[in-house]
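QA checklist item 7 of 12: single-chain prediction sanity check.
[x] sequence parsed
[x] length recorded as 167
[x] structure emitted
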Amino acid sequence: MSQNIFEIDVSGQDILDEGYTLVVAENKSSGLLLGFKMQNSVISQITYSWRAGTYRYANSKKGKTNLRVRLYCIIIYKIFCELRKVVVGRKILLEICRDFDGKEEQIKQNLLFFLGKLELEPEFVFAKLSKESIADKYAYLLSKDTQNKFKDLLVEIKPKEFEELLI
């Protein structure tokens, strides 16, 4: 059985900044891709709840880093919840851009857990994606889309959906 290959890349410096964009794109000309663009309403709710001690992540530098990694993985999971409707097979290869250097094992464990819920069997490659990669191009494009011309390529994740997976 063949394996679907997906690239994952972001545009933006901090996942807790408005406009931070993450894209999951199939690594072939199928055109299969979805992204998520962080909104202020989500950032405000997550930041407030984190500072209030609602989540299991300590109100510290390390805790905030772990929170960011978990948010990153939740976004990927929610995108695959949508992609799963059209992805054939269980085995997938994720080519993940090194956006969280040193956190690869934490990302891998989170994604094994989340994607396992979707009956997907991921394998992982962490590397710097080329500027020619589909995920890199679309992450940048979607992050610059101020008129929502590409809204059909974005999944919406409400603060409550994040919170359910952060508590």
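[x] summary fact logged: The first strand starts at residue 4 and ends at 11.
[ ] second reviewer sign-off
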